[in-house]
Design a protein that fits this description.
Elements: E1 4-6, E2 10-13, H1 20-27, H2 44-61, E3 66-70, E4 76-84, E5 96-102, H3 111-126, E6 131-137, H4 141-149, E7 153-160, E8 163-171, H5 172-177
Antiparallel strand pairs: 1-2, 2-3, 3-4, 4-5, 6-8, 7-8
The chain binds coenzyme A.
Coenzyme A binds next to strand 5, helix 3 and helix 4.
Length: about 180
């Protein structure tokens, strides 16, 4: 399944095997995994398996995270977008989640927010979802801030493994009311 969405500074598209080297650079970086359970991938095969897994999600559920490309450089900067939580995932199974994971050199430029706003639009207009959640380690202030900037509201705290997390949510009505 192909996806291609443009924002002012980014291209959001389906994962491709040719992303492997950059994807491995992203997902093997311990800094990136600070609030994700500190479990970076150890070899390229693991990274390739993730690419295949997401490609399978596209076919099964019509959605999955997107490779995120910086227009000005053409570089893969990480991933962003929506995921259908089909696996047993805390108590949010069967919901749609907005998320992101970027290489540190691209942090602090507003990219996660820009990509996530596009993902919400896709979710509410193309997929016709009624609500979208986002979750983050409560210590992951940057991630929580991204969700807040996109209009998600705090719902509750919960535990993922031993990690304290927040769940935030936006409904289609709330999203529509924040469109100009
Ligand atoms: C979370 C992440 C995607 C954010 O990406 P980003 O492109 O830097 O995010 P943005 O620039 O769109 O927005 C970040 C916001 O958080 C704020 N922020 C960053 N660090 C912060 C901190 N330590 N405390 C409070 N706010 C912080 C920024 O100031 C900005 O808010 P502002 O625009 O109001 O100033 C990036 O840090 C990342 O990839 N981290 C590793 C993977 C990860 O943790 N993913 C999320 C899993 S839930």
């Amino acid at each position: 399944m192909k996806f291609y969405i443009e924002t002012p500074r980014l291209i959001l598209r389906d994962f491709q095997e040719s992303d492997l080297d950059s994807f491995y650079e992203l997902d093997s970086d311990p800094l990136v995994h600070t609030y994700l359970g500190n479990n970076p991938v150890l070899d390229k095969n693991q990274a390739l398996e993730t690419i295949y897994k997401v490609q399978k999600q596209y076919e099964e559920f019509g959605i999955g995270r997107w490779s995120t490309i910086e227009k000005s450089s053409g570089n893969f900067i990480g991933w962003s977008g929506l995921k259908f939580l089909n696996e047993d995932w805390a108590k949010y199974t069967n919901q749609y989640d907005v998320g992101y994971r970027l290489m540190p050199k691209y942090w602090g430029k507003g990219y996660a927010t820009e990509a996530s706003l596009a993902a919400l639009e896709f979710g509410f207009t193309t997929l016709k979802l009624k609500e979208i959640i986002g979750t983050a380690n409560i210590e992951n202030k940057a991630s929580i801030r991204v969700l807040e900037k996109c209009g998600l509201k705090h719902i509750e705290a919960f535990k993922w493994k031993d990690i304290d997390c927040y769940c935030l949510k936006i409904t289609k009505e709330d999203w529509e009311s924040q469109q100009i």
